[in-house]
Write a structure and sequence with these properties.
The complex is a heterodimer of chains A (about 230) and B (about 100). Chain A is mostly helical and about 230 residues long. Chain A is about 70% helix and about 0% strand. Chain A contains 6 helices and no strands. In chain A, helix 1 crosses helix 2 (about 70-75), helix 3 runs antiparallel to helix 6 and helix 4 (about 110-140) runs antiparallel to helix 5. In chain A, about 40% of the residues are buried. Chain B is about 65% helix and about 0% strand. Chain B is built from 3 helices and no strands. Chain B has helices at about 10-30, 40-60, 65-90. Chain B is flat. The chains are: A mainly alpha (about 230), B mainly alpha (about 100). Chains A and B meet through helix 1, helix 3 and helix 6 of A and helix 1, helix 2 and helix 3 of B.
Chain lengths: ~230, ~100
């Protein structure tokens, strides 16, 4: 007498209990819907992040419109070489991140862990260079506050520029630190075989977050570092 | 059964995008050293926009994403656009009246 699943123990993860894959959470119809829900959730969060950083960019644009010469003068004290290197480093970390996702798609554990680790490494290089830059700013009295001492024509406008510089790059760096933490957790999960080609949403969606952080920097770099370049 | 009829982007494509991003970065640094007047900003933002588009399309897999996902992304850009447009519509149309002494 054949029955479809009368003697299957629902606690037995190796058997398709109730006829569905073990990675499928019960409130979803199928794995594809589960995957899509996770992706849409992450994109929704990224849209809120777009508005968050968007507010900072709008503030920057507002005050640059009002004090263009001050912003240009202040921008000269940023190190374009370090900024360009950091841009390349971050783009590289996006490459390693997407290759980690590819590893998850292929079920290649070594690829996942290797490229996630490389992503963290590049992120730390970025943060290290940022720390050097921040140190230079502190030593040169360009950190807004009581110690601010700008040796140029537009002192108040320069302090405004550096307020935006530290707020925007600071929030960006904070996002990177959090991202590093999340990626470290992913490495731990990958080591415990939490990912398969059927179910790797956490890796994919962390990738989305990481690429977003890269995109924020892609806009920060020219707007902060390069605006004064063609002015003497 | 693979849940992703999610077509996979090739490794070669990823490296091509990476290369393009580096080239565009170099381009924006070089372009910034020339005087294009008000167009310096336009060029810088256009290059940054192109880089962002590459990242979103290939690294963030939007190329193969569902229509619904793309709607979410466009919505984000749309709302950011509203923020900029309305803020600047106010700012650039302000006039200040200096009272006569």
């Amino acid at each position: 007498m054949a029955t479809s699943h009368s003697t299957v123990n629902p606690l037995d993860a190796s058997a398709d209990h109730a006829g569905h894959p073990p990675e499928l959470a019960h409130h979803f119809n199928d794995l594809e819907q589960q995957r899509l829900a996770g992706t849409l959730g992450m994109w929704t969060f990224l849209v809120t992040e777009v508005m968050f950083f968007g507010g900072l960019f709008t503030g920057y644009a507002y005050y640059r419109y009002k004090f263009p010469d001050a912003f240009i003068e202040a921008s000269h004290h940023l190190d374009i070489l370090l900024g360009t290197i950091n841009t390349a480093v971050l783009i590289g970390s996006s490459l390693t991140m997407v290759l980690a996702v590819q590893g998850a798609q292929r079920g290649n554990k070594k690829q996942i862990i290797g490229f996630l680790a490389a992503t963290i490494l590049l992120a730390l290089v970025f943060l290290g260079i940022k720390a050097v830059e921040y140190h230079h700013k502190w030593v040169d009295h360009l950190v807004p506050g009581p110690a601010f001492d700008f040796k140029g024509q537009h002192v108040d406008g320069a302090q405004l520029f550096y307020s935006f510089y530290f707020a925007m790059t600071g929030m960006h760096a904070l996002h990177m630190v959090l991202g590093i933490g999340i990626i470290a957790v992913l490495i731990w999960m990958a080591k415990r075989d939490c990912f398969s080609p059927r179910s790797y949403g956490a890796v994919e969606n962390t990738g989305l977050y990481w690429h977003f952080v890269d995109i924020v920097w892609i806009f920060l770099f020219p707007l902060l570092y390069l605006i004064g370049r063609h002015h003497p | 059964m693979s849940t992703s009829d999610h077509p996979v982007i090739s490794t070669r494509a990823y490296f091509s995008v990476f290369g393009a991003l580096l080239v565009l970065t170099a381009l924006t640094v070089v372009a910034a050293s020339y005087h294009f007047g008000p167009y310096n900003d336009v060029i810088a933002l256009a290059i940054a926009g192109a880089k962002a588009l590459l990242v979103v399309t290939y690294f963030m897999h939007l190329r193969h994403a569902t229509g619904l996902t793309r709607v979410f992304v466009v919505a984000g850009v749309f709302w950011l656009g509203l923020l900029f447009v309305f803020t600047f519509a106010d700012l650039v149309t302000r006039t200040f009246f200096i009272p006569a002494t």
